Amino acid sequence: MSHLHEEKPGNRRLCMGNEAIVRGALEAGVAVAAGYPGTPASEIIETLSALAGPMNLYVEWSVNEKVALEVASSASFAGLRSLAVMKQPGLNVASDYLLHLSGSGTRGGMVLVSADDPGALSSVNEGETRPYAKLMEVPLLEPGDFQEAKEMTVWAFELSETIRNVVLLRTVTRLSHASGTVVMGELPETEKQARFKHDGFIIDPMEGVVMSPPVEWKHSQQQEKLKQAQALFETSPFNTYEGPDAPELLIITSSVCTLYCKEAVALLDVGERVGILKLGTTWPLPEKWVKKHLATSDTVLVVEEVLPFLEGEIKILAAESVAEIGAKTFYGKKEGSLPTTGEMNPDRVVAALSTILGVEYIGQEAAYAQRANEISFAGAPNREATFCPGCPHRASFWSINTALSMDNRNGFVCGDIGCYSMAVLPAGFSTLKTLHAMGSGTGVASGFGKLSPFGMDQSVVAVCGDSTFFHSVLPPLVNAIHHQSDLTLIVLDNSGTAMTGFQSHPGLAANAMGEIAAVIDIPTVCQALGARVKVADPFEVMKTRELLLGLLDEKGVKVLVLKQACALSPEKKHSKAWEMTIDESICLGDTCGCNRFCTRIFACPGLVWDKEKGKAHIDEVVCTGCGVCAEICPVGAIGKGRAEKKGKKRASGGEVSHLES
Q1: Which CA distances in Å does 160 have to 89, 108, 172, 180, 262?
Q2: One domain for residues 615 and 565
Q3: Over 80: is that where the pLDDT of 575 sits?
């Protein structure tokens, strides 16, 4: 359990950015928190859930981000302070409700934390949170370091209650997952009391009906709230300037880019020539404060991640104020000094500064860099992205791939987001042919499945994970069944939100706080909707393949649930079902005709090619004993014996469901 709640005021603690946000929420007196797992935001709800008991909180992993925002808003309507947490793609999911919420307004302080992932370090896009603030007309705050992440979270709740609207707090991967020293503040001791007042005059913001109509009047009120926030931003302590009074170059930046700018200025030793204007309140801009500093320099560099959002707003302000502050020369992403994709870093800022200021900077020598590159490629083994040893997804995609090949209709698989996204790569035998948002695989497949009148005769398959099934697959599945689309949905049920840390979902018997929860059975739900349902253990590859081949021949919507817990799940970690062995007298390696099938094609990390012996070898350190390699070895050289039980093992095969074929 996290001990953040035990830290006394004034204590200094090394905190990850997400932990600093949690401490800030606790110091603000948060009562309810809801979110959906997504790196780099997951640790916020994880940490709060561990503190639910001692801090008298309600914390949940909601079925998706829209629902998380709705749950958090209900607490605000009842006068409590609440937090909604998600990564940026989840903000897309929540945006429908956010548009209405920003119009209706809130009561208790409500903060929406959205974590961006510049560079797509753990995402399939590097989408932006910031345009949503402008689109939805809500204030946007961006902490620049770890202490500020805590302090700004507290202030965000206060701002929300001042303007009676949701406040958007944007973090990024390098802040959420890096660590720094944070000084603790006071924790409140107030009693949390929920009461939803709804009997007042219909448009009374605190005791009437909570709704966005009458739209024009509410919209005007919303814009007044923005002006109120903007006035507060003018004196915000989170907007800072350091540098000479009249800098040759003014850098305007925000978020962790502030740290990159400071490092770049120090590396070039241009502190007497360059000023750094750091904005913590990035929408709406504190116009008076920004204009004051724009007037001090004729040359401006805007440094931000990822798109030129801040640059565009600064340029608009400068154009509107040209008579007051004079003409400016701008550098940044639009003009090409900085890239419009990927993470920012000190090197990129140094390159821009050295060109603008005419300062020569020699970092790493070219010869050194070339030699280092040669050594790294010559000495380090190639490590492609792959599934973990014993991952049920490897077995699932093996069966899917072989079944589609045997089906001989050039069938294909539509995928979406999860560990199984790697099936676009050789790790998953290059099985996925479309990859978009969560649940989109089923939606796209629903469309493909209606194209037979236009001559399409290919088998259409969609895959999703168990958490994704509840998040966003149910609507397209209903759509496919209602419209009698021809598709096969394969649910890769590994018993948890494995990609982000095994968070709970409605298919499991526990909630985020460890309490017993009702289990929603995926096969039963699909059967109730009208789909034909089969259930299998993906480790039984022959049976899985035959079941899938049978389903591919049928019309309509079919669902195959492949149920096997993730090898890294708490229930299976450090346990083995089988002890795997290789009979070297049978394994003939390159001469047996399989061309090292097990290590070259199936490529489980638990299988290693022994060059000296010319045989396959079981790596006992990483092998989880799933037994799949014994089934796929074409000459039967791999054997399995029952392992001694060292921990609890999930039942598989016939015990997974009464619907099993």
Answers
A1: 23, 8, 21, 27, 31
A2: no
A3: no
Confidence of residue 380 (pLDDT cuts 50, 70, 90): low
* Number of domains forming the structure of the chain: 4
For residue 368, being part of any structural domain is answered with no
| Structural contact between residues 435 and 403, judged by C-beta atoms closer than 8 angstroms | no
What's the CATH code of the domain at 466?
3.40.50.970
> Looking at the structure, do residues 225 and 304 belong to the same domain, yes or no?
no
Displacement of CA 412 from its chain's centroid (Å)? 26
Mean pLDDT of the chain: 90
Rounded distance between C-alpha atoms, residue 160 and residue 77, angstroms: 12
Residues 221 and 504: their CA atoms lie apart, in Å, by 39
Question: What are the residues whose beta carbons fall under 8 Å from the beta carbon of 435, sequence distance 6 or more?
Answer: 124, 415, 416, 417, 421, 424, 441
What is the CB neighbour count within 10 angstroms for residue 573? 12
Which domain covers residue 399, as residue numbers? 392-571+651-655
Task: For residue 277, give the CATH number of its domain.
Answer: 3.40.50.920
pLDDT at position 658 over 70: no
Taking residues 256-270, what's their average pLDDT? 96
How far apart (Å, rounded) are the C-alpha atoms in residues 395 and 416?
A: 18
> Looking at the structure, do residues 629 and 506 belong to the same domain, yes or no?
no
Percentage of residues in the chain having pLDDT higher than 70: 95
Contacts of 633 (CB under 8 A, 6+ apart): 594, 597, 598
Mean pLDDT of 185-212: 90
Give the Cα separation of 309 and 305 in Å (integer).
9
Binned at pLDDT 50, 70 and 90, residue 656 comes out as: very low
**254 and 217 within one domain:** no
For residues 555-572, give the mean pLDDT. Answer: 88
